[in-house]
Automatic annotation (TrEMBL):
InterPro entries cross-referenced by the UniProt entry: Ankyrin_rpt, Ankyrin_rpt-contain_sf, PGG_dom
PROSITE patterns found in the cross-reference section: ANK_REP_REGION (PS50297), ANK_REPEAT (PS50088)
Subcellular localization, as worded in the UniProt entry: Membrane
Membrane-topology descriptor: Multi-pass membrane protein
Region Disordered, annotated ranges: 314-333
Protein name in UniProt: PGG domain-containing protein
Broad class of the protein's primary localization: membrane
Organism of derivation: Nyssa sinensis
């Protein structure tokens, strides 16, 4: 009988159920007291058989509260599958099943949020609004689950229903992470923008490791989305834990106190302050890392070009005829280009050496341990890098010209055109970079001496500028 009842539930056959009830009126009662892992109501709820569910509930509503081997009620299964009609039928029988947790510590609302079942979420919240306050075994709210599983629409719906629940929106899980911490860690830009737009997020909350959302971004693996995420956080007033300590401690420099008072006065005014940030707090670290990588690559290429110049090296020694000027001597291991075109070889080695030594000097400065963590020193290293890259470009074209056949007019014409276009493009790019940095330097000088009104800045940016002024 139990097997036939399970088959009827699998098919959703109401006729089979009625037939079984005629044969054994207590068959549903036996389903309650038996040790089977799933009741027929569990099966029908999971498969979406509305009529079958309605018939069982009309005859034995107690089955709605039965749990399977995983601690799931029929409401859990219907919610996770998104069967809205069945969810409504189950809630009519027992609305309190909304707050029942399964073996994983999740309610029907939790599993519906993980799967993004918007209609089911709406119905569960309408029937039992308190279900949004139930936590998982890890202390997570339903909002944590939405962010962890990247269910943006479900998150929008839930936040809309929690307009007056600021404490719940900023709730911390067992690791001390709010939903903002998790969104930043997972680089979810749209989720981050939604959270910041609610004006309910506390952007400088610390997690169990003592990190703010901005600290999590700083210490996470580099990503193309980092700049946009950092700008959004800083526009909302996010700070690193170091800057928070500077503002709250008694030994804060006077400059930071002034900036803090300025931000406070702006917030109390009628107009909403617009904060503009010069750089993120780890600007120097990112620049130094980039310089190290590029310098290492250029040094490797230049070293290889110096050992194996265009044309290679002689594999044997040869004594030329002294009476024949065109019959030149050569020694094994010497450069073929040095014997055939000594002038071009000299120019090639000069620029290759410049690129090699310039890149090595950057590497030496970065690993020397000297206190070169000021922006001015970083700009000097960047100028050296421009020199190294330019020298490497010249080395490339010299090698290209040497390897091209000189008696083929078509090849020479094509090489000339490619060289002219490439050199012109490179000069335009270098000029653009130079002009851009020159303009930035002039603006900085004009602001420093009061000719241009100072921008609104964050405490972290102000500290960086003060370090620059100390030089």
């Amino acid at each position: 009988m139990e097997k036939r009842l399970s088959e009827a539930a699998l098919k959703g056959s109401v006729d089979s159920l009625l037939e079984l009830l005629q044969e054994d009126p207590l068959i549903l009662d036996r389903a309650i007291v038996s040790c089977i892992s799933e009741s027929p109501l569990h099966i029908a709820s999971m498969l979406g058989h509305v009529d079958f569910v309605r018939e069982i509930l009309s005859r034995k509503p107690e089955l709605a509260t039965e749990l399977d081997s995983q601690g799931c009620s029929p409401l859990h299964l219907a919610s996770v599958k998104g069967h809205l009609k069945i969810v409504k039928e189950l809630l009519l029988v027992d609305p309190e099943m909304c707050v029942v947790r399964n073996i994983d510590g999740r309610t029907a609302l939790h599993v519906a949020a993980i799967k993004g079942r918007l209609e089911v979420l709406t119905e569960l919240i309408r029937v039992n609004p308190e279900s949004t306050r139930v936590l998982t075994d890890r202390g997570e709210t339903v909002l944590h689950l939405c962010v962890k599983h990247n269910k943006l629409e479900a998150l929008k719906l839930l936040i809309e229903s929690m307009k007056n629940e600021k404490e719940l929106v900023n709730w911390k899980d067992c690791d001390g992470n709010t939903i903002l911490h998790i969104a930043v860690a997972k680089k979810q830009i749209q989720t981050l923008k939604l959270l910041l737009s609610t004006n309910m997020m506390e952007v400088n909350t610390l997690n169990a490791n003592g990190s703010t959302a901005l600290d999590i971004l700083t210490h996470s693996p580099r990503d193309l989305r980092d700049m946009e995420i950092g700008d959004s956080l800083q526009a909302a007033g996010a700070l690193s834990v170091k800057d928070l300590h500077l503002i709250t401690n008694d030994w804060v420099p006077s400059t930071v106190h002034q900036i803090t008072r300025r931000l406070t006065s702006q917030k109390s005014g009628s107009k909403k302050p617009v904060l503009k940030h010069k750089h993120s707090t780890d600007w120097l670290g990112r620049k130094r890392s980039a310089l190290m990588v590029v310098a290492s690559l250029i040094a490797t290429v230049a070293f290889q070009a110096g050992l194996t110049p265009p044309g290679g090296i002689w594999q044997d020694s040869y004594e030329g005829d002294p009476n024949n000027p065109g019959d030149r001597s050569h020694t094994v291991g010497q450069s073929v280009m040095a014997s055939s075109e000594p002038k071009d070889y000299g120019v090639f080695m000069i620029f290759n050496t410049i690129a090699f030594l310039a890149s090595l000097s950057i590497i030496l400065l970065l690993v020397s341990g000297l206190p070169l963590k000021r922006r001015r020193w970083t700009w000097i290293q960047m100028v050296i890098m421009w020199i190294a890259i330019t020298a490497q470009v010249v080395t490339y074209f010299l090698a290209l010209r040497h390897m091209s056949p000189k008696d083929d007019n078509r090849v020479q014409g094509m090489l000339r055109e490619v060289t002219e276009i490439s050199v012109l493009t490179w000069l335009v790019l270098v000029a653009t970079v130079f002009i851009g940095n020159a303009v930035r330097m002039n603006l900085w000088i004009l602001r420093k001496y009061g000719y241009i009104k100072e921008k609104e800045i964050t405490p972290s940016a102000a500290i960086d500028d003060d370090e620059e002024d100390e030089l």
